[in-house]
Every structure is written in structure tokens, then in C-alpha cells.
Amino acid sequence: MTEKAPKLEYRLLTEFRRLFEGKIYKHRDSSQGDFVAMHLHEDLITINRSSKLVDAAINRKDRVLNVQNKRRGVSARRGDGTFGEIIPGETAITDPGYLVARGPIATVEIGIEVKILAKAMIKRNQVVQFKRGGGNPICTAVVGINQAERTVGYEGDRPFPTTRKQGFLHPYQEAPEAEHRLLASAAPDFDEFLILRFKATNAPPYPFEWVNYNETRLDYAAALSRISARYQQRF
């Protein structure tokens, strides 16, 4: 009998879960999206479906992740985990536990926007910002949509539970319409538009669960394969 290959544990999904599980999630902390986004690049290298991507990012290190999300000489709104060509003469920095190096970038080849729908909607003009300055970047959106029966938001240290008395709908009531609008109005502008459906109350003991983990995992894996194929063709 042939043994089945072990399933990959994707780093982006693991880090997304860790935003909520066992601790307070504060939606105004923009660094959280940056941190989750950078793991998509790690997953792209792990699946190894584009020899050009692996060679550029690992072997030559002339393509790097720019966690500052700022291209020299180009005025554009930040994305969450931009990947592109390192500025000539600069040195790539490799951190322990990571395959993709960091450094200042001159171009964007893969741009990622991560948003979590509790408070903030994705910016529809992000694709324009990725493309400002030329090139043909692969534009990817990862959108988390909470479907919990209720949740707690925070302004600083002050909790604000969702209650009908305050005039707010609970996450599970808003989720279907939010997803429908995003798929209709935002998704067509991106090369890949991935929705992560989950449940998190943001209240003790801070539980987290995927609505359907296997479906989410398969959708993410398929997106990684398509991004790899696009990179192989475009660059």
C-alpha cells in the first residue's frame, strides 16, 4: 500500500490563527497584517512550484521581502508584504527561521494586502498602488471574515461587545453580505482574492476556529499554485 504524503501546514494560516487564539486581537494594529502577509512568500518557496521564484529569492537573493512596504522613488500607499527586486548594491538580510530575505526594494513583483473584517474594509485602490511605478505585479488579497455569533472590539484597552442595543449586527449577521460585496466589487481587481472564514469571539478564553479548515487549506494551496505559475510566466 502506498503511503499518503503528509499534508503541508501552511505558515500563513498558522500565523493568522495565532492573531486570535488565546489573546486579544486589536484591529487597529496594522503590523499584524504585515506579519501574516510575509508568510505567504515563505509558503510559495515551500511548495516550490516556480523555479524562477526559488532561484531569485533563495539562490541569488536579488528578490527580497520589503516589510517596510516602501519602494524608493515611488509614492504609493503601503501594501502588507511586498516582494520585489532589491536595490542594486544593497545587502539582503536573512532572518533565522525564514527562507525569504529582507531588503529595500526598487520594484514590486508580488504585492499582498491582508485585511480582517471586523472593522476595516479592503481598499479597492490597492492594486493601483501596487502598480504605480510600472511593472506587472501579481496582486493578491487575503481577507479574513469573522462569522462568530458575537465578538468584542477594542478601542485602546476599552472593550466594546457587539450588541443589538448599540445598533451593531453580530459578525455572523454581517458576514454573508460583506463577502458578497467584496467578491463583486473588489475581487475582480486582484489576481488572487482569498477569503478566510473563521470564528473568534475576542473574549476570554479567546477561542478560534476555522469555519471549514480543509476547504480553507485547499483554497489557499490552490492560490499558491496559481501565484507560482504567474510568477514563472511574468518574470
Walk me through what this model shows.
With 235 residues, the protein is α/β, with parallel strands linked by helices. It has one domain (11-49, 109-234). Helix content is 33%, strand content 19%. Strands 3-4-7-8 form a 4-stranded mixed β-sheet. Strands 1-2 form a two-stranded antiparallel sheet. A two-stranded antiparallel ribbon has the order 5-6. The longest helix has 22 residues, at 213-234. It is globular.
Specify the number of helices.
6
Q: Provide the spatial order of strands within the biggest beta sheet.
A: 3-4-7-8
The unreliable regions are 69-79
What structural class do the secondary elements suggest?
A: alpha/beta
Helix-strand pattern, N to C?
HHHEEEHEEEHEEH
Strand content: 15-25%
Give the beta-strand count. 8
Helix content: 25-40%
Shape: globular
Please describe the biggest sheet, giving its number of strands, its sense, and whether it closes into a barrel: 4 strands, mixed
Mean pLDDT: 81
Rg computed from alpha carbons, rounded to a whole number of angstroms: 18 Å
Q: Distance between termini?
A: 41 Å
